[in-house]
Structure formats: structure tokens, C-alpha cells
């Protein structure tokens, strides 16, 4: 079960890096489609600045998840405790985004984070 948790949380970390890439470097058409926003809005300079800012958060958060899995030399209990906090953060942000931005966020962020939290508590 610990291996399944490692795989799932690694995928969540990689997802956040992918979202960062889309927010910071993606074409406006891809951004508009991915985030269910009008193309004319996403094309505005202020929207691009906001997406870039959000991208930094997602990228650093993805790196934090991956660092927790592979770099930080801590006990399994400490790693699970820290990962619980990270997954609660993903769940909270996903809930907010799902209610305010697009319902796809529930499936893309909330469901994997909830499964990871369940696995943490079962380990």
C-alpha cells in the first residue's frame, strides 16, 4: 500500500508541474480550453500575468510533493504526516477551484488527493 501511495502522490506532484507548464508557457488556446475560460479573457496581459503567478505556486507545490517523496531523509511516519498536510492543501485548493473555476478540478485534483489521504490513513 505504501508503494501505491508513493506512485499516486508522485503523479499528483507531476500533475502540478504539468499545470505549471500550461499556466506559464501554454498557448492561450490550450489555457482557455483547460481552464474553461473565454479565449478573449485568457489573451489579456493581466490574465497571462495571473496565470503565470498561479503557475509558480503549482510548480513549487509539485516540487514540494516530489521532494517529500524522494529527497527529504525522514522516517516513514514523518513523511506520511507531511504528505497528509500537502494532500489536504491539494484537496482544499481543488475544492475551491472546483466550485469557483471549473468542475473538472474536482476530478483532476480532489479525487486523487482524497484517495492519497485514504491510503495514508490505511498505511
TrEMBL record:
Domain of life the protein comes from: Bacteria
Keyword Acyltransferase listed: no
Coiled-coil spans in chain: none
Keyword Transmembrane helix (UniProt): yes
InterPro entries: DUF1304
Alphabetized UniProt keyword annotations: Membrane, Transmembrane, Transmembrane helix
Protein name as annotated: DUF1304 domain-containing protein
Lineage, opening ranks: Bacteria, Bacillati, Bacillota, Bacilli, Lactobacillales
Amino acid at each position: 500500500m505504501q508503494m501505491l501511495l508513493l506512485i499516486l502522490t508522485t503523479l499528483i506532484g507531476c500533475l502540478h508541474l504539468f499545470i505549471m507548464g500550461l499556466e506559464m508557457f501554454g498557448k492561450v488556446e490550450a489555457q482557455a480550453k483547460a481552464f474553461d475560460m473565454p479565449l478573449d479573457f485568457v489573451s489579456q496581459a493581466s490574465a497571462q500575468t495571473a496565470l503565470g503567478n498561479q503557475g509558480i505556486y503549482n510548480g513549487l507545490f509539485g516540487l514540494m510533493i516530489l521532494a517529500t517523496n524522494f529527497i527529504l531523509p525522514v522516517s516513514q511516519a514523518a513523511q506520511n504526516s507531511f504528505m497528509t498536510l500537502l494532500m489536504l492543501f491539494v484537496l482544499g485548493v481543488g475544492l475551491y477551484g472546483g466550485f469557483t473555476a471549473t468542475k473538472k478540478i474536482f476530478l483532476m485534483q480532489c479525487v486523487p488527493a482524497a484517495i492519497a489521504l485514504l491510503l495514508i490513513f490505511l498505511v
